[in-house]
Amino acid sequence: MNLTDHELRVLRLVAQGSTHQEIADELVMTAKGVTPTVNRAIRKLGARNAPHAVHLAHLAGILRRERHGDHAGFTAHVRRGEDPWACTQGCPEGERAYRAGRRQQRKEAA
Ligand SMILES: [Zn+2]
Question: Which domain range does residue 79 map to?
Protein backbone atom coordinates (compact mmCIF):
# COMPACT_ATOMS: atom_id res chain seq x y z
CA MET A 1 0.00 0.00 0.00
CA ASN A 2 3.08 2.22 0.10
CA LEU A 3 2.77 4.92 -2.49
CA THR A 4 5.86 6.02 -4.38
CA ASP A 5 6.96 9.66 -4.13
CA HIS A 6 5.71 10.13 -7.66
CA GLU A 7 2.27 8.67 -6.91
CA LEU A 8 2.11 10.84 -3.79
CA ARG A 9 2.97 14.00 -5.73
CA VAL A 10 0.28 13.20 -8.31
CA LEU A 11 -2.30 12.43 -5.62
CA ARG A 12 -1.46 15.67 -3.81
CA LEU A 13 -2.17 17.63 -6.99
CA VAL A 14 -5.40 15.66 -7.55
CA ALA A 15 -6.38 16.63 -3.99
CA GLN A 16 -5.75 20.28 -4.87
CA GLY A 17 -8.15 20.01 -7.79
CA SER A 18 -5.56 20.06 -10.57
CA THR A 19 -6.58 18.67 -13.97
CA HIS A 20 -4.54 15.85 -15.51
CA GLN A 21 -3.04 18.39 -17.93
CA GLU A 22 -2.03 20.69 -15.06
CA ILE A 23 -0.52 17.73 -13.22
CA ALA A 24 1.38 16.73 -16.36
CA ASP A 25 2.73 20.29 -16.77
CA GLU A 26 3.70 20.58 -13.10
CA LEU A 27 5.49 17.23 -12.92
CA VAL A 28 6.91 17.34 -16.45
CA MET A 29 5.14 14.23 -17.72
CA THR A 30 2.48 13.55 -20.35
CA ALA A 31 -1.22 13.92 -19.50
CA LYS A 32 -1.56 10.30 -20.73
CA GLY A 33 0.91 9.18 -18.07
CA VAL A 34 -1.14 10.74 -15.27
CA THR A 35 -4.08 8.31 -15.52
CA PRO A 36 -2.16 5.08 -14.82
CA THR A 37 -0.37 6.78 -11.92
CA VAL A 38 -3.68 7.89 -10.40
CA ASN A 39 -5.10 4.39 -10.96
CA ARG A 40 -2.11 2.82 -9.21
CA ALA A 41 -2.60 5.13 -6.22
CA ILE A 42 -6.33 4.27 -6.15
CA ARG A 43 -5.54 0.55 -6.21
CA LYS A 44 -2.84 0.77 -3.53
CA LEU A 45 -5.15 2.71 -1.21
CA GLY A 46 -8.02 0.27 -1.81
CA ALA A 47 -10.14 3.16 -3.03
CA ARG A 48 -13.02 3.09 -5.53
CA ASN A 49 -12.10 6.26 -7.40
CA ALA A 50 -9.83 9.31 -7.22
CA PRO A 51 -11.90 11.36 -4.71
CA HIS A 52 -12.13 8.25 -2.51
CA ALA A 53 -8.36 7.81 -2.78
CA VAL A 54 -7.80 11.43 -1.71
CA HIS A 55 -10.15 10.91 1.24
CA LEU A 56 -8.43 7.69 2.35
CA ALA A 57 -4.99 9.24 1.94
CA HIS A 58 -6.04 12.14 4.16
CA LEU A 59 -7.39 9.75 6.79
CA ALA A 60 -4.13 7.80 6.70
CA GLY A 61 -2.22 11.04 7.24
CA ILE A 62 -0.17 10.66 4.08
CA LEU A 63 -1.51 13.81 2.42
CA ARG A 64 -0.80 16.29 5.16
CA ARG A 65 -0.76 19.87 4.07
CA GLU A 66 2.77 20.91 3.30
CA ARG A 67 4.03 23.52 5.65
CA HIS A 68 6.53 26.19 4.65
CA GLY A 69 8.21 29.27 5.99
CA ASP A 70 9.31 28.22 9.46
CA HIS A 71 11.41 25.67 11.36
CA ALA A 72 8.68 23.00 11.05
CA GLY A 73 8.50 23.51 7.29
CA PHE A 74 12.28 23.41 7.08
CA THR A 75 12.58 20.11 8.95
CA ALA A 76 9.70 18.64 6.92
CA HIS A 77 11.83 19.13 3.80
CA VAL A 78 14.66 17.22 5.49
CA ARG A 79 12.25 14.39 6.39
CA ARG A 80 11.09 14.21 2.76
CA GLY A 81 14.72 13.91 1.68
CA GLU A 82 14.71 17.33 0.02
CA ASP A 83 17.20 20.18 0.29
CA PRO A 84 15.43 22.67 2.60
CA TRP A 85 17.73 25.51 1.52
CA ALA A 86 16.39 25.11 -2.01
CA CYS A 87 12.80 25.86 -0.95
CA THR A 88 11.37 28.95 -2.63
CA GLN A 89 8.43 29.26 -0.24
CA GLY A 90 10.17 30.90 2.68
CA CYS A 91 11.72 27.95 4.54
CA PRO A 92 15.37 29.17 4.36
CA GLU A 93 14.34 32.61 5.66
CA GLY A 94 12.17 31.07 8.39
CA GLU A 95 14.97 28.75 9.46
CA ARG A 96 17.51 31.59 9.59
CA ALA A 97 15.15 33.60 11.82
CA TYR A 98 14.57 30.51 14.00
CA ARG A 99 18.32 29.91 14.42
CA ALA A 100 18.97 33.59 15.18
CA GLY A 101 16.26 33.41 17.86
CA ARG A 102 17.84 30.29 19.39
CA ARG A 103 21.25 31.98 19.42
CA GLN A 104 19.71 34.97 21.18
CA GLN A 105 18.06 32.69 23.76
CA ARG A 106 21.36 30.92 24.48
CA LYS A 107 23.13 34.26 24.86
CA GLU A 108 20.52 35.46 27.34
CA ALA A 109 20.66 32.20 29.28
CA ALA A 110 24.45 32.34 29.57
ZN1 LIG B 1 9.55 24.95 2.21
Answer: 71-109
